[in-house]
């Protein structure tokens, strides 16, 4: 007689159930996409709580993005109800490490109100150090050095642990010295960067066994999602925090390891059995997410990788739509194709019910690809959300406001001081600011302290001193106010007193938008008890700020899509040089090419019912047209899982050899022919480490490509209609770009494909 299962286990397969029930001792769930790894983790939390094995705050559960953490909390809440609220230690590596660091900040020379620097601050700080040290900033950019520092930190390396040779490009040990200078400066500023959060944790936990002991007692169960993407310092952190009961459960998929470029070590998975002898390894093979064709396409693609553990995957969702592969003329046509397809699905097709906008997602390789889609959505009024995109908190006015708040929260924060001391203009010139910064550096104190001292003396000329005295007077008033006023009230007072609001009001072009954004900032602060909590939130929120949860199309990078699923997924830009990225082809050899392929695998496996891949024949990179070659990944898709249509005459060579039923037409892919310079700079300075996605920046293209001729043969003076700007007369023609004098909006430069003869 079959045992009666409690509700929690209903519907789980045998292996999933084993992974949930085996709560004592180390467990590794190694399984492909969509097999329920994340579901196992949430059910496991529910099981631990349900059995009374631990209280909610005694479970440490780490994920990679804020969105994933939020989803996990919600899923658990559905299973266990209100007690999910007590899961204080469910979050990203960064957020949990920050909590721990605040408690013991003094042990690493910080105060508990330390600031977490963003990229801009980090680079500005390095710039100052480079200037001081006389480094040639044309040869070594502060930005690329910031990247180097992050790489060291990802590997758990403090300056004293770096072996000779690393950072050699800065001249022997110079790199290490600069790194040390940077760390010293951070301490004076009472600040740390993202990498420091974990690094300082490691320092504290290794040097203070008594503290480690308290965490060992506290964290009875540890759970980790996306284990394949942990870097060395995250790995060490987890090892340290695991107590002798070793109740550690990691889930991951080696085929989805996509952060090698940021120091992730897929080897961490392979080492698991060795690190935790007796560990139970559980494999899940049934995919519950995707249809047969989607899974078949993904499996066929990933087969081309050599470095794999190898897994079986099957689904009971037989049949379904084949993966669509669409060749198009150019980027605009691609955006048009995708947007119109979405509209069609939104209305509902003959076979299918209407799709919600939020059922559909576009996953791009690099964020610059988003612009064409965004423009199209605006034009067609399709609601959309950029996930993890150019974010609200990155706008200049928001950064200014936050700099004011940061300075009030932590007056030693020189970077905040530098940002706002003359915004709005107070007549404190650049020269004065530089002088203050220099003074502070020499004295080894913060600028605020230096200013406070200086204005007591006669060292500054009156025209510099008067505005500084005024600023300090305002500042001490805000400081007083911050002790008991609500954060949003404080913000309002600061922006009013400082003249910041007035400055924006005076700006007739975009002042209103900025004022609206600042208002929105005030709204977002209302949810926080105090300024410190709010600022912490701001520095940690790395994704999804604009996901309003409403019914809108989702637009994001492939990296940001990890762990998510959508009924319909669009995968545009499958072209050599975009995907795989030029950098991966030029520099990284097989290793990074395989990482690109894993990223493609992640992309396809996000789809539940429909996956639509596209590539174009022509693309504009920094204003120049280039010919594109379809991605090798297109060729690698098994023909039986794919349905291809093309405007460009391209037929896949891969499919030819697979006995393609299509005739070979004009276009022959030949990757080796494209031996030109990269479309993206190999410059790692373009990589933003803080973000959970690579930011590929197109650099100016190598060869002047001729302007694409206008396909429509427009003539000067012709009257035309544009979908967005209405009627107008053509005043200039340059290839396929037209300058049109529109009746309502004046001269605009537009692409001819958006224009029709009126
Ligand atoms: P990824 O590798 O992409 O992160 P995953 O292994 O974490 O995938 P989940 O997101 O947990 O997979 O699950 C994929 C989908 O399958 C989800 O919609 C989940 O609810 C569903 N699912 C998982 N297990 C079952 C099951 N036993 N019965 C029905 N649906 C399931
Ligand atoms: Mg998952």
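^ Assign residues to that structure.
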């Amino acid at each position: 007689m079959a045992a009666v299962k409690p509700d929690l286990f209903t519907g789980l397969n045998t292996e999933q159930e084993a992974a949930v029930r085996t709560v004592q001792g180390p467990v590794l769930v190694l399984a492909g996409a969509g097999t329920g790894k994340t579901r196992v983790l949430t059910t496991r939390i529910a099981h631990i709580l349900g059995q009374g094995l631990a209280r909610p705050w005694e479970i440490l559960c780490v994920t990679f993005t804020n969105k994933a953490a939020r989803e996990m909390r919600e899923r658990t809440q559905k299973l266990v109800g209100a007690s999910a609220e007590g899961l204080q230690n469910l979050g990203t590596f960064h957020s949990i490490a920050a909590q721990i660091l605040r408690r013991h900040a003094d042990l690493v020379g910080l105060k508990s109100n330390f600031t977490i620097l963003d990229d801009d601050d980090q680079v500005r700080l390095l710039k100052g150090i480079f200037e001081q040290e006389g480094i040639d900033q044309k040869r070594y950019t502060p930005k690329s050095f910031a990247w180097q520092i992050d790489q060291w930190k990802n590997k758990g390396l403090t300056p004293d642990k770096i072996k000779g040779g690393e950072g050699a490009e800065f001249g022997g040990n110079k790199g290490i010295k600069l790194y040390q200078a940077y760390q010293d400066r951070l301490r004076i500023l009472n600040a740390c960067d993202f990498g420091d959060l974990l690094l300082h944790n490691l320092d504290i936990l290794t040097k203070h066994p008594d503290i480690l002991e308290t965490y060992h007692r506290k964290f009875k169960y540890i759970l980790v999602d996306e284990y394949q993407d942990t870097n060395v310092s995250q790995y060490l952190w987890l090892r340290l925090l695991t107590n002798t009961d070793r109740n550690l459960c990691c889930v991951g998929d080696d085929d989805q390891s996509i952060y090698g470029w940021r120091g992730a070590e897929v080897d961490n998975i392979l080492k698991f059995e060795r690190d935790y002898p007796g560990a139970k390894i559980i494999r899940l093979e049934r995919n519950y997410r995707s249809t047969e064709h989607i899974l078949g396409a993904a499996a066929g693609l990933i087969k081309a990788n050599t470095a794999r553990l190898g897994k079986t995957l099957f689904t009971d969702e037989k049949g379904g739509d084949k993966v669509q592969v669409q060749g198009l003329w150019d980027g605009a046509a691609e955006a048009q194709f995708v947007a119109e397809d979405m509209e069609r699905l939104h209305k509902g097709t003959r076979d299918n019910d209407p799709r919600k906008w939020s059922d559909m997602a576009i996953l791009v390789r690099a964020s610059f690809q988003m612009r064409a889609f965004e423009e199209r959505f605006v034009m067609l009024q399709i609601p959309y959300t950029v996930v993890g995109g150019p974010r609200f908190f990155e706008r200049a006015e928001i950064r200014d406001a936050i700099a004011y708040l940061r300075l009030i929260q932590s007056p030693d924060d020189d970077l905040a001081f530098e940002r706002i001391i003359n915004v709005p203009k107070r007549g404190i010139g650049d020269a004065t600011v530089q002088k203050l910064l220099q003074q502070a550096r020499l004295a080894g104190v913060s600028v605020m302290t230096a200013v406070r001292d200086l204005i007591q003396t006669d060292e500054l000329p009156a025209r510099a001193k008067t505005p500084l005295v005024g600023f300090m007077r305002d500042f001490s008033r805000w400081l007083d106010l911050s002790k008991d006023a609500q954060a949003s009230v404080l913000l309002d007072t600061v922006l009013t007193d400082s003249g910041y609001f007035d400055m924006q009001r005076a700006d007739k072009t975009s002042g209103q938008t900025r004022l609206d954004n600042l208002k929105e900032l005030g709204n977002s602060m209302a949810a926080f008890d105090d300024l410190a909590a709010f600022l912490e939130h701001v520095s940690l929120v790395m994704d999804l700020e604009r996901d309003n949860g409403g019914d809108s199309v989702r637009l994001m990078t492939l990296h940001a899509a990890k762990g998510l699923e959508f009924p319909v997924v669009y995968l545009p830009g499958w072209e050599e040089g975009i995907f795989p990225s030029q950098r991966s082809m030029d520099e990284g050899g097989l290793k990074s090419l395989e990482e690109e392929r894993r990223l493609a695998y992640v992309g396809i496996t996000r789809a539940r019912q429909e996956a639509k891949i596209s590539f174009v024949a022509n693309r504009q990179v920094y204003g120049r047209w280039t010919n594109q070659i379809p991605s090798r990944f297109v060729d690698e898709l098994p023909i039986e899982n794919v349905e291809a249509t093309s405007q460009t005459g391209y037929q896949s060579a891969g499919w030819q050899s697979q006995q393609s039923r299509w005739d070979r037409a004009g276009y022959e892919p030949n990757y080796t022919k494209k031996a030109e310079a990269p479309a993206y700079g190999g410059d790692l300075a373009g990589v933003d480490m803080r973000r959970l996605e690579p930011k590929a920046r197109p650099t100016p293209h190598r060869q002047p490509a001729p302007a694409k001729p206008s396909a429509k043969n427009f003539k000067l003076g012709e009257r035309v209609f544009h979908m967005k700007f209405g009627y107008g007369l053509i005043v200039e023609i340059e290839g396929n770009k037209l300058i049109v004098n529109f009746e309502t909006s004046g001269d605009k430069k537009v692409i001819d494909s958006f224009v029709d003869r009126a």
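The mean pLDDT is 83.
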